[in-house]
Design goal:
Layout: H1 9-16, E1 43-49, E2 87-94, H2 96-100, H3 141-151, E3 160-164, E4 174-176, E5 179-180, H4 187-196, H5 224-244, H6 249-273, H7 320-336, E6 342-347, H8 378-384, H9 387-408, E7 411-412, E8 415-416, E9 421-427, E10 439-444, E11 454-462, H10 463-473
Parallel strand pairs: 1-6, 1-9, 2-11, 3-6
Antiparallel strand pairs: 2-10, 4-5, 7-8, 9-10
Length: about 500
């Protein structure tokens, strides 16, 4: 055993107050060495947004079946063309749990109302006075996977629950029935959590009425602690250099590789400490968004964040695009570092009545469309279901394409992060008129489990079946997920 193997990497991390991405994966802990050339672990990345993936009168879904290979993707899906062979496009998920849930209060049964059960597949514990106050009735798939990873000895963050903000209290993730997980909508706080070891409390037990808006725990931003951590990194570089002279050839190579990574972290921290070079949030070119700076070797490392967004600005519609990109890039960095293996990214809430995509030319003018929200917000546009919605749907598909491109661009063992990640994009309805049946979805990655490069027209398929497939793809199969009456894994995903 080499000398450095006698030191516990995680003990040292704890002592330094650093996150799991900091120190190299030496022979003593190579099981987690996704960034040191070992076979990459399995991961899951779920992205959810509301109001449908197509417009009822102005767009269609992709050609299914044998015609898919020779077809052209619909214009709003054109950004996904480079990933045609990496995806399964699904047309026809049914959220049957919403109509079958006991509903003595006669709560709304619609696509909006599906939100809290999209990842649980369970009957609701209760329906509220509006879809914001419905309460999920079981554990969500992300929490199931996180619990399974932890039980199997995984030492990273079991799950990350992220959000680009909107006002609703509707939640996707549940620890158990009636126990939602509060997503973190501050990318700088998430950055600190993932790459500096500060783990917030995210589980929220709602009051019995679920009528109030939960108050998030105080969220820190990049501040003086970054200066302290940069100082610690300076010491780590010196210690790693000293250790490299005392270990074997294999460990020395890993240390040299990791020195490059640590210096990259220093550079990224410096860019955060001095954000003056950022171009600001918003704008049609995505200015102010994250630039991923992976080391040239493809090793793990945190992204460099752009201009700081804090406080009330986190809840401003103009920053929704920048925060969306930040959350995607942090997810990719966290996966590359093996800091987490399961991420849920909630792009708004069950309707997005406040989110105006000004970078698409829509004016955030404060004009309201009855109880639908802003007249130019995503929800109201979805109700009109025409050319404007195609523009919005195109924007969301471009975010999916961006996420797939970032994952595919990072080497992970002998493959890429996308190869080792099951990516699932879900929506709570088909178009903007609240249908909870026949809903499209996108699955990408994990080609060693799923049969990719296809477009499937589904019938009688529930979201439960896809969730069950995710558990199997992650190595934690369960016969059913959510309500057992809806059956198990969707065999069609495997060919």
């Amino acid at each position: 055993m080499s000398r450095i193997d006698r030191f516990s990497r995680r003990t040292l991390l704890k002592g330094l107050g650093m996150g799991p991405a900091l120190l190299p994966m030496l022979e003593a802990e190579q099981a987690h060495a996704a960034c040191a050339g070992a076979s990459g672990p399995k991961r899951t990345f779920i992205v959810v947004w509301p109001d449908g993936m197509i417009a009822k009168t102005a767009s269609t879904w992709a050609t299914s079946g044998a015609g898919y290979a020779a077809s052209t993707l619909p214009i709003h899906m054109a950004s996904l063309e480079p990933f045609r062979s990496d995806m399964i496009l699904m047309d026809g998920l049914d959220y049957d749990f919403i109509k079958d849930s006991p509903n003595p209060s006669r709560g709304e049964v619609s696509g909006h109302a599906c939100f809290q059960g999209m990842l649980t597949g369970a009957f609701y514990q209760s329906f509220g006075s509006s879809t914001a106050y419905d309460v999920g009735g079981g554990i969500s798939v992300d929490q199931y996977l996180g619990n399974s990873l932890k039980a199997g000895g995984y030492k990273g963050i079991p799950t990350l629950n992220l959000q680009a903000w909107s006002r609703s209290t509707a939640r996707l993730s549940y620890v158990a029935a009636g126990q939602p997980v509060l997503p973190n909508y501050d990318p700088f706080n998430v950055f600190s959590t993932v790459f500096a070891g500060v783990k917030p409390t995210t589980v929220v037990t709602p009051p019995s009425t679920m009528m109030g808006t939960p108050t998030p725990a105080p969220m820190t931003t990049v501040d003086k602690t970054m200066l302290m951590r940069k100082s610690i990194l300076d010491s780590v570089v010196k210690d790693l250099t000293r250790f490299s002279a005392s270990v074997g050839t294999g460990d020395r190579a890993r240390i040299d590789s990791h020195l490059t990574l640590v210096r990259g972290i220093e550079t990224n921290l410096q860019s955060i400490l001095n954000p003056g070079t950022g171009t600001g949030a918003g704008g049609s070119g995505g200015s102010g968004s994250v630039v991923v700076t992976q080391p040239s070797s493809g090793a793990c490392g945190p992204p460099a964040l752009g201009a700081t967004i804090t406080g009330a600005a986190l809840k401003q519609s103009a920053n929704f695009p920048a925060i969306t990109k930040m959350m995607i890039d942090i997810t990719v960095g966290a996966f590359a570092a093996d800091a987490t293996r399961v991420v849920v990214l909630q792009l708004g809430d069950q309707a997005n009545p406040d989110i105006v995509l000004t970078e698409l030319g829509f004016a955030d003018n404060g004009v309201q469309d009855g109880n639908t929200g802003g007249v130019n917000a995503i929800h109201s546009i979805a109700h009109r279901n025409g050319a404007e919605k195609v523009k919005v749907d195109t924007w969301f598909m471009e975010k999916v394409a961006y996420a797939l491109g970032q994952l595919k661009g990072v080497t992970d063992g002998a493959k890429t992060l996308l190869d080792n990640t099951a990516f699932l994009a879900l929506n709570n309805m088909r178009t903007g008129i609240h249908e909870y049946v026949g809903v499209p979805a996108i699955l990408a990655g994990r080609g060693d489990y799923f049969s990719l490069g296809r477009s499937l027209a589904l019938t009688g398929t529930r979201n439960n079946n896809v969730l069950c497939s995710l558990t199997a793809a992650m190595g934690f199969p369960t016969p059913t997920f959510g309500e057992a009456q809806y059956g198990g894994e969707l065999a069609a995903l495997k060919g």
